[in-house]
Amino acid sequence: MSDPSTASANDATVPGGNTWNERIIAEFRANAGYVPWSSEEEFAGDRPVPPWMPGFDKQGMPLVMVHNIGAKSGRERINPLFFQPVDNGWAVFGTHGGSPRDPAWYRNLMANPQVTIEVGTETVSAVARLAQGEEREQIWAKEVALVPKFAEFEAASGRQVPVVVLERVDG
After folding, report:
1. 167 near 88, Cβ under 8 Å?
2. What is the pTM of this model?
3. Contact 38, 47 (CB under 8 A)
4. Half-sphere exposure of 160 (CA within 13 A, CB side)
5. Burial 59-81, CB ≥16 within 10 A → b, else e
6. pLDDT above 70 coverage of the chain, percent
7. Which of 37, 136, 20, 131 is nearest to 80 (CA)?
8. How far is residue 87's CA from residue 66's CA, in Å, rounded to a whole number?
9. CA distance 136 to 153
10. pLDDT at 1 over 50
11. What does the longest C-alpha to C-alpha distance in the chain come to?
């Protein structure tokens, strides 16, 4: 399964359809926050969204677009990420496809926590914070139940996958 949280070099700055993220961003915006599932043939042909997975709506994979500022570059990045609704925001998961390193977007959020989120057709301001302790365990357990591949990514990585909560900023 492709994992949107694995992208780093492909972070999009201006969507135009050339990079992995840019293609996903265009589909997200064209489909009100969903990216259509790939057929087996499309997935094998390097279309980055996996075939339909149990537990998700047939219309596609719901994602959030996280607009953040690069920790080193200072440039705007846009990252399409799996998410889980939580209280007044969304949780995102730094699986990085099982890599032993955290994804670049995670480092960006920890350095610059003020973000803008596209969710569905809505754009909102949010603040990123690392979930820890019991909160992290509850969110992670719920996500692993929905996407069991995430547990495999964590085991392969040799690190605890960061769970970042993006809390809506009202006004």
Report:
1. yes
2. 0.82
3. yes
4. 11
5. ebbbbbbbbbbbbeeeeebbbbb
6. 81
7. 20
8. 18
9. 16
10. no
11. 45
Distance between CA atoms of residues 138 and 127, nearest Å = 20
Q: What six digits make up the tokens of 143? A: 């996500």
Please report, in angstroms and rounded to a whole number, the separation of the first and last CA atoms in the chain.
37
Burial of 146 (0-12, 13-18, 19+ CB in 10 A): middle
Q: Residue 72 pLDDT > 70, yes or no?
A: yes
Q: What is the DSSP string of the chain?
A: ---GGG-STT-BSS--S-SHHHHHHHHHHHTTTEEPPPPHHHHHTT-SSPSP-TTS-TT-EE-EEEEEE-TTT--EEEEEE--EEETTEEEEE--GGG-SSPPHHHHHHHH--EEEEEETTEEEEEEEEE--HHHHHHHHHHHHHH-THHHHHHHHHTSPPPEEEEEE---
Q: How confident is the model at residue 97 (pLDDT cuts 50, 70, 90)?
A: confident
Residue among 113, 11, 25, 111 nearest 64 (CA): 25
